[in-house]
Amino acid sequence: MNTVRNNSWYFSSIRKYLFFVIISGIFALMCTLISYPGILYSDSYGRIDIAKLILSRAPRIDSWNTTVPCLFIAISLALTKGIALYTFFHAWLLFLFTFLLLIRLGLNSKLLLVVLVGLNPMIWGASVYYETGVGCVTGIVAILLILSVMSIEKSNIDRLIEFSLLTFFSFIVFGYRANAFTVFPVFLIFIVLVKCERKLKLLFISAITLGFVFVSVFTTMAHINTMSSKSAGFVWDILNVIDSLDDNEKNNLITVFDDIGGEGATKEALQMNNNNSIDGFLWESKLNRTTLSQTDAFSRILQKYISVIKHYPFEYMRVKSYSVFRSLGINKRITLHEYDYDRWGWMVKYNFSDTRLRHLFVDTYKNFVVFMGWYMLRPIVVFLISLCAVIYEYVKKNSNRSLFLFTFAISVFYYGSFLINTQAYQIRYFYPALFLLSAINIVAAINFIKMLGEKARNHFKHSKSSFED
After folding, report:
1. What span, in angstroms and rounded, lies between the C-alpha atoms of 328 and 384?
2. 3-state secondary structure of 225
3. Whole-angstrom Cα distance, residue 97 to residue 141?
4. Handedness of CA 326, 330, 331, 333 (dihedral sign)
5. Other Cβ atoms closer than 10 A to 6
6. Cα dihedral 55, 56, 58, 61 sign
């Protein structure tokens, strides 16, 4: 066993970065204690209920939300009778991989890393947030880190560790966020372009694919019926197009969904619809989540979607352009909904308690987001700054520039899924992309400041020597 540890690149890396392993644990413990049970919202309570059903071995479980988080919540419940263990590991992994990503991008000062991560509400505020985007981006970062060192020569035990970790974190990425499938091609391109043996590339591709497949295997083994949520966004687009038509044209589509939801379903959904999220019609109308999850509902809705584009191209483009602009924060800022002290007052129902310190925790995060709204609630600004950052790193021929590029590409592909099928304009949906882009921006900004500092020092030395001459 000692020989394995001594010859393992990964065991050596643990020793090398032990400080960050420990400090991440300290930060995670503090956030867990202050915010316990964490920041919960409507879907969080639903996942806790599903976790309990998994433990009770229910013969059938219906779930509108992604269910892989329920597995880990169930493990926490089984081991501790509570969810504190899940909250802690959720936070610890985010802190740890944030440190490691910044280091891989080129930031090496321990003090600066601790300050930037430990005092950053975007990190600690999200670390205990039961939002699947946080778990998803943690997995994405883990995969990025492994791929960035895959060409380094390692032992067979390290390759086994890499295969296991890639499979596990792929399971998390695709099991936490269904729309994350759009980053799959970026991972594959990353692997293909790395200079290493073909069999190693196949090993890594197999691991990521296996993690993706395990998502379906888990839901089958747990007897979970995953209700399709992808239909709702397309229905919402069609309803918004209908709303934009004049009365005569509107009559042509007033029954477009009646064959799915029953007589009057379309009219009812239009009356309940709003242009901020799918919540307007989804929960109480005849076009509810159960109806939209029928076996053939998605294929029929997709056909209607294509038909609307074909017959009302200008109206569709106007509605879709508004949706894309809203998602990017161009015409209106995205929102900070569903980051609450006590969503719907349900904490008592689940035997959780609230505290003043927890209120301060939530308030500080929310105030920070509002203060940084020009950045955090305007994704287009984040993307433009990141694009400049990537270009700068390439111009300066930074040795880590390929990692900058692929981190940027993953953010673009992840965000792109929401531009195609949007359900709301809330920061929680876009957090993975904003997190990755912000990591790029922070390191590039520090590199730029260092460059200016070196130029200033050189100029001062040159001026001093000229004066002395």
Report:
1. 11
2. strand
3. 6
4. positive
5. 9
6. negative
Which tokens go with 307?
């038909």
Q: What dihedral do alpha carbons 180, 186, 192, 196 form, nearest 10°?
A: -80
Helix residue ranges per DSSP H, 81-183 = 84-104, 110-118, 121-127, 132-148, 156-176
Read off the tokens for 81.
Answer: 């009778």
Q: Write the pLDDT tens digit of every residue in 141-158.
A: 999 999 999 989 899 999
For 447-464, how does the pLDDT look when each residue is reduced to its tens digit (9 = 90+)?
999 888 888 887 777 766
Say how far apart CA 305 and CA 198 lie, in whole Å.
Answer: 42
CB 101 within 8 A of CB 145: yes
Mean pLDDT, residues 328-341 taken together? 91
- Residue 329's region, left for phi above 0, alpha for psi from -120 to 50, else beta, is left
Cβ contact 127:88 at 8 Å: no
Return the sign of the alpha-carbon dihedral for residues 416, 419, 420, 421. Answer: positive
First and final CA of the chain: distance in angstroms?
Answer: 65
Q: Tell me the two tokens of residue 13.
A: 């890396």
Question: Which two structure tokens, joined as six digits, stand for 320?
Answer: 């879709």
Q: What is the pLDDT of residues 358-410, one digit of tens each?
A: 999 999 999 999 999 999 999 999 999 999 999 999 998 888 899 999 999 99
What mean pLDDT do residues 162-172 have? 97
DSSP string, 299-348: HHHHHHHHHHHHH-HHHHHHHHHHHHHHHTTSSS--B-TT--SSGGG-TT
Q: 468 pLDDT exceeds 80? A: no
CA-CA distance, 187 to 190, in Å (whole number)? 5
**129: number of Cβ within 10 Å:** 28
